[in-house]
Amino acid sequence: MSSLTERKARLIVHGDQPYNAEPPLDRLRASYRTPAKDFYVRSHGNLPDLDEAAWRLTIDGRTSTALELSLSDLRIRFPEATVTATMQCAGNRRADMRAVAPVSGDPWDAGAIGTAEWTGVRLGDVLREAGVAEHVGHHVAFESYDMVEGRPYGVSIPLAKAMAPETLLAYAMNGEALLPEHGFPVRAVVPGFAGVRSPKWLRRLSVQGHPSDNPIQADEYKLYPADVTAEAADQAKGYTIDTMPLNAAICEPGAGATLKSGGNRVRGYAVSGDRAVVRVDVSGNGGRSWVQAELEHEADAPFAWTFWSTSLDMPAGEHELAVRAWDEAGQTQPATSNEIWNHKGYLCACWHRVRVNVA
Q1: Of 94, 116, 89, 123, which is closest to residue 106 (Cα–Cα)?
Q2: What domains lie within the chain, and their CATH numbers?
Q3: Which of the residues 54, 174, 245, 341 has an alpha carbon 20 to 30 A from that of 94?
């Protein structure tokens, strides 16, 4: 296995402490399942160094039986499940919002996203073993081994999502044990939700009647209107980000590329939190005219992205490529980041635009 230093060298690193990085977009588009070494890394604190044999997961709260499980317990006591799903940071494409006005957070391009085959056990099976009764108002709070400003990382999801068959306690990624930066030995995988809701390095699950009061859940990852400043933001009035919106990005060619006149291949991805992508339009002139792209999607992976590709015939000169996706509800993306700007730079889902030169 390559070292963390070697894997960092493959990525565009936005921060070392905490470690945050994304892959170049052409490499992201090279494979439907993103290799672990090319998968984006989003950390809020330290990278824990955990021993697989000593690791334990506690399940408590509103359960009839409190559980303490080892990795061997998970493997032996529960049926194994595999889900192919896309994971995406809520700050993906934040760089596009920075072009409008300053925002907080790392300047992610369109690479804070990846798709993997996740293997583990269904979280719902573990919760049922603990005697958890399904209740509309309940939540599952996660606590992790990584520390953020003196507290363990913590978030929560509604109990209904925790019990859904796609939600996993995962110990493998693309058939291999999780890398340390991706949550070894066990992480949550919550398909369709923002990556923040899929915590790594799990240590405890607690079933409770309210969302987690951890600052990551209670204060962060809130969506505010454009006129709300960081100083005036009231966390109680921010909308908690769970399900991710419809989005699409151009991975090839890259920004500033020089192309030959004539037909040029354009490729990228499209994704929607919990709806199917049914159409992708691509423009070579900033959106004045469009062509429909060919779509590639695995039918048995409803929470995975859609790859798209098309050929554009472009004469010499500068061109602004643009892409927009449509979902099964007939919804599409806003044209510009001005329409969705917020001071946190979350959920940038406007048309993705790339300027190229054609010789």
Answers
A1: 94
A2: 4-240 (3.90.420.10), 247-358 (2.60.40.650)
A3: 174
